Structure formats: structure tokens, C-alpha cells
Amino acid sequence: MMSKPLTGRKVLAIAVCSFGVIFAVNLVLAWNAVQTFPGLETANSYIASQKFNDRAAAQRGLGWDVAARVEEGQLILAITEADTGLPVQVAGLDATLGRATHVRDDMTPDFSFVGGVYAAPVDLTPGNWNLRLIATAEDGTEFRQRVVLHLREG
Q: Is pLDDT of 42 > 80?
């Protein structure tokens, strides 16, 4: 059996096809990245940074610890005083639960303060979830935190 010789045209065709595949894959990945990007966190980072240290100091001054878990279809959010471990009942609670990579699954849990914790019914699939939390203290101080939840199957 004789094989045909490798010519310049064949080498050119192999190179063009190879780079064509690489280019097509890069276009698909770039398009998906742009389509799933949730957007900017802030319109002007310089302005947002001006009071960052003051807000961070006020938040640390509250002395709160936050922990979240999912049990039997309930998202349990515990906000406690770091020194005493006693539960904290906040003046306002705004939370968004979603994936880190896209906003398609974002939801706003409807929390109720029951037994010293905040609980909300949720239906979550296994994987990584982020709870982006803004809790307001009685004095109006905002407490912002992102709590990462790792849900496993079973």
C-alpha cells in the first residue's frame, strides 16, 4: 500500500483546519463568558472605595458571626454575637442566594426569625451556592457578607 506524499497544500490545509478549530472554540467560550457575566458590582470603584474603611470598621464593631447551612429544605442563617454566642435579631435582612458563576438561579429567600435563627424554605441542587447578605443593625449599621454553601448529594 502506497501512501501519498505530504505536500505543501496538505500541510497548509492541516494548519488552517487546526487553527480554525482553536479559533471556533475560543469564540464559543468568549460568547458564553459574556452571556453569563452577571454584571458590575459597582459603577465606580473609586467612589465606592472612599468610605470602605469606615464601613468595614463599623461592621467589625457590631461583633457578629454569621453561619449558614441547609437542613431538610430549609436555609438556616445564624447571626450571633461573637463574644457571647447569643442570637442577634436584625432590623432588616436582605439576602440573595445564587450560584457564583451566573444569576440564572438567583433567588431571594423569605426568612423568618424562629428559635434564634433565620430560616427560609429553599429547593437547592447540589453544588456551590453563595448567600450575599445585607443585615441592618438596630442603629442602621449595615453588615455585608458573602457566605459560601457547599451542598453535597444525599
A: no
Q: Where do the domains of the chain lie?
A: 8-37, 63-151
- Residue pair 126/152 in contact by the 8 Å Cβ criterion: yes
Calpha distance 89→135 (Å, rounded): 10
Determine the pLDDT at residue 154: 62
- 79 contact partners, CB below 8 Å, separation of at least 6: 64, 65, 66, 87, 88, 90, 118, 135, 143
**Which cell goes with 126?**
447540589
pTM recorded for the entire structure: 0.67
Per-residue pLDDT, 79? 94
- The fold of 63-151 is Immunoglobulin-like (2.60.40)
**In the chain, at which residue ranges do the beta strands (DSSP E only) sit?**
64-71, 74-81, 92-98, 112-114, 117-121, 127-136, 142-151
Is the pLDDT at 115 greater than 80? The verdict is: yes
